[in-house]
Amino acid sequence: MTNKIKLYCIPYAGGSATIYNQWKSKLESHIELHPIELAGKGSRITEPFYPNLEVAVEDIFTTISNDISTQDYVIFGHSMGALITYELLQKIKITDIKQPLHAYFSGRKPPHIARKKTYSSLSAEAFEKEIMSLGGTPPELFKYPELKQIFVPILRNDFKLSETVIERPEISTLPFDISILVGKEEQIKQSEAVQWKMHTSKNCSVHFINGGHFFLSKEVEAVTSIINKSISKYIAD
C-alpha cells in the first residue's frame, strides 16, 4: 500500500501531453498526473520525430526510469499511446526496475489482433478524409495551408508508429492488473476488447464508454472515475 501514485499518460496520434490536463481536477488527491510529451509535439515541437516505435519507447523509458525505480506508478495510453504503453511495459518487464501497479489501455485492440486499416501511406486527399472520419481533429487543421504544413507531417509520422507490427512468437503477459477502455461507437468489437485478458497474468477489467474513438476528451468524468476507483485499492488507509 502507498500514499501517492504517479499516473503517466501517453497521448494518441497527433495529440500533445496537454490533452490530459483536463483530468487534474477530477483525479483523487493521491494521484499525481504526469502527461508525457512526445518528441515533435507541444513543448518538444522543435525536436525531430521518432523514426520508429523502438526509439519512441526508449525515449520515454529514459525520461521516466529514474522516477519509476523508486516510486509507485501506473501508466495510461490511448490509441497510439496504448501501443507505446504496451511496448514500454514489455521493456520495463525485462529490467530490474519497479513494475507499475496497474496499466490502462484505451481505444486500442489488443496487440495480437492485426490492424486491417493503415493510414500513413495514403495520398494527401485520402489521408485527410480518413483522419476527419475518425473525429477528434479540428477541421481548421486541413482548411489552412500553414496549419497543414505543420500538423500533417506530425499525424503521418504518428500513424506510422501506430501501425508498427511487433512480431512475438507468443504473448508475453504483464504481471499486474490492467484496465481496458473502449468507446461504444468506435470500431472495436466487444469480442476483440475482451481479448486483452490474454495479456496479463493478473486481473483485466474492460469498460465500454459512451462515444467514439475520442471519448477520452468528451467523457472525462467516466474515464477519471475508472482510474480513481481502480487506483484506490493501492492506497493505504
Tally the helices.
8
Into which percent range does the helicity of residues fall? 25-40%
At the fourth level of CATH, the homologous superfamily is: Alpha/Beta hydrolase fold, catalytic domain
Let me know the number of strands. 6
Can you tell me the residue ranges where pLDDT is under 50 for at least 5 consecutive residues? Answer: none
- Residue-averaged pLDDT: 91
Order of helices and strands: EEHEHEHHHEHEHH
Please state the overall shape, judged from the principal axes of the Cα atoms.
globular
Biggest sheet: strand arrangement: 2-1-3-4-5-6
Distance between the termini: 8 Å
| CATH topology assignment | Rossmann fold
- The appropriate CATH architecture is 3-Layer(aba) Sandwich
Counted up, domains total 1
Provide the β-strand percentage band: 5-15%
Largest sheet: 6 strands, parallel
- Structural class category: alpha/beta
Q: How would you describe what is shown here?
A:
- This protein is α/β, with parallel strands linked by helices.
- The chain has a single domain (5-114, 168-232), classed as Rossmann fold.
- The protein has eight helices and six strands.
- Helix 1 (53-68) packs across helix 2 (80-93) and helix 2 packs across helix 5.
- The longest helix has 18 residues, at 145-162.
